Recover the amino acids of this structure.
């Protein structure tokens, strides 16, 4: 999908100050430095729609969004958008002032905006404090440059007669308040009375001082949250994986929200556009991917120039995909390529019950913990190597993790249901922490299993044995690459595959693990899937396999 949009619950554009903001920006602002400098700003449905979403309100007129994330490829005027929102926050009617009954209007610099009946009306923030965050000392950046041009060359420049003071390092607003470009050092010294903050290109916020700056400033926003409705904007191009940048953290937050793992009020607006095209050699497909990734920003970009840049031999494939397709790329140590996962999940439904029938031959894989990481039970259909989750539980990442314990009885029930519902021919499970349960499962179901994990046990498969695990992982990886294994696109299961990192042991045995011991990124379902696929491979060697099932899901063509 080209665009991913995550909005707060209860959001409706019928309650938004964003249409007023959109009008205000197009009426009073000009484009900043560049080829179109000084021309009026015009926003289409995509960028204008983002502005509308930034100002969503609840039924009481309170802001629904306290942080907005705008992710687009290089050259999409993300900094300009940040500047326009900052100017509206400084001078415009950006907070709720009541519901219009009809006939009311807002007037500024001789221009009027007439409210529709039932539309929210706006007012200015009292004493607004706008921060434009810079990544380098002494740098103002594209966002503040755009603000400076607007306040010295555009319609807003007339406010100098009312006391506005515009400089290269700050703006003093006519009725009180400031717009200030700020470095990491200055932010750490400031008490902070911010009402709105722009963090530009947060994929570059990958150093401790920049992460500390981000944490300090976002905490400061809480001080005036009740009275001023404070919020902040992140703009970015896709992050480089593994750098722990602020953009990566926000991306993961959005994914947790989509997965239903986020607890508390969901107040993030997440708007990402890009393409996951991995093969850049097909010019036609590449052109389509660029157009898809840029959306309405294609109006001021040249697709031919972008293709030239991508095909420049000095450019790397991953950098080109990140910068020009805004694609999530795998890290250098990732076990699987993202295009491998995309191919393995293509055309499959998220609900495996739609294509897996009762009574089919399957194998099971299990990897467990008790209070850390995750526990997973994954099945593999023998006929075609389709992997699908039966039960996955993850340790939460927040404070509630302290007393968390996996629900052991739930997994016991899931195992028993699998044996009731399907013909389970193999079951490989990693014993640590769960040895008593494995013994019980082997006593109850061992006679039904037609393959064994090794000498002395039908179920126990020690993943700590590097040689066995190396060959099991290689088998699954090759099968996923060549299409002999498929994965149901369940978010948790796919995420565990994405998180898996390569680790080389003695004698060049390659296994998988987390990126670091304390990483919150779980991989247990990927290990469970590997064990299920290895159990299937062991059974297939016997030669008694049912005819392959069709995993393609027919869809109507319009």
């Amino acid at each position: 999908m080209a665009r991913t949009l995550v909005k707060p619950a209860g959001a409706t554009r019928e309650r938004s100050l964003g249409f007023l903001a959109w009008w205000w920006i197009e009426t009073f602002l000009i484009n900043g430095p560049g080829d179109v400098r000084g021309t009026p700003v015009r926003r289409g449905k995509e960028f204008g729609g983002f502005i509308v979403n930034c100002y969503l309100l609840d039924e009481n007129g309170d802001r629904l969004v306290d942080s907005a994330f705008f992710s687009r490829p290089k050259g999409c005027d993300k900094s300009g958008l940040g500047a326009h929102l900052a100017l509206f926050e400084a001078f415009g009617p950006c907070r709720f002032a009541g519901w219009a009954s009809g006939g009311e209007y807002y007037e500024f610099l001789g221009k009027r905006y007439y409210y529709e009946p039932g539309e929210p009306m706006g007012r200015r923030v009292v004493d607004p404090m706008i921060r434009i965050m810079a990544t380098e000392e002494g740098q103002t950046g594209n966002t503040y440059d755009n603000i400076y041009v607007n306040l010295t060359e555009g319609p807003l420049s007339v406010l100098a007669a009312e006391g506005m003071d515009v400089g290269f390092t700050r703006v003093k607003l006519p009725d009180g308040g400031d717009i200030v470009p700020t470095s990491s050092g200055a932010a750490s010294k400031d008490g902070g009375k911010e009402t709105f903050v722009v963090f530009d290109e947060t994929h570059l916020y990958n150093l401790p001082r920049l992460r500390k700056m981000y944490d300090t400033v976002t905490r400061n926003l809480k001080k005036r949250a009740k009275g001023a409705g404070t919020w902040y904007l992140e703009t970015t191009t896709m992050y480089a994986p593994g750098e722990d940048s602020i953009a990566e953290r926000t991306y993961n937050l959005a994914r947790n929200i989509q997965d239903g793992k986020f607890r508390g009020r969901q107040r993030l607006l997440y708007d990402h556009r890009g393409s996951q095209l991995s093969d850049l050699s097909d010019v036609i497909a590449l052109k389509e991917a660029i157009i898809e990734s840029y959306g309405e920003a294609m109006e001021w970009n040249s697709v031919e120039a972008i293709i030239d840049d991508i095909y420049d031999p000095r450019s790397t494939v991953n950098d080109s995909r990140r910068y020009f397709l805004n694609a999530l790329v795998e890290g250098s140590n990732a076990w699987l390529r993202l295009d491998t996962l995309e191919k393995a999940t293509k055309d499959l439904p998220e609900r495996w019950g739609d294509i897996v029938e009762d009574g089919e031959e399957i194998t099971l894989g299990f990897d467990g913990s008790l209070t850390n990481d995750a526990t997973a039970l994954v099945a593999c259909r023998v006929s075609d190597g389709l992997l699908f989750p039966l039960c996955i539980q993850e340790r939460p990442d927040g404070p509630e993790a302290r007393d968390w314990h996996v629900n052991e009885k739930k997994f016991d029930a899931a195992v028993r249901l699998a044996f009731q519902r399907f013909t389970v021919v193999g079951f490989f499970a990693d014993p640590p922490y769960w040895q008593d349960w494995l013994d019980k499962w082997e006593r109850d179901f061992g006679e039904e299993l037609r393959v064994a994990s090794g000498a002395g046990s039908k179920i126990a498969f020690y993943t700590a044995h590097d040689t066995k695990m190396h060959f099991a992982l290689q088998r699954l990886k090759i099968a996923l690459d060549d299409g002999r294994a498929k994965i149901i696109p369940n978010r948790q299961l796919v995420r565990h595959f994405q998180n898996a990192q390569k680790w080389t042991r003695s004698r060049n045995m390659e296994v998988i693990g987390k990126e670091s011991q304390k990483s919150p990124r779980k991989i247990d379902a990927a290990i469970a899937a590997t064990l299920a696929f290895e159990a299937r491979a062991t059974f297939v060697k016997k030669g008694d396999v049912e005819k392959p099932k069709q995993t393609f899901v027919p869809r109507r063509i319009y």
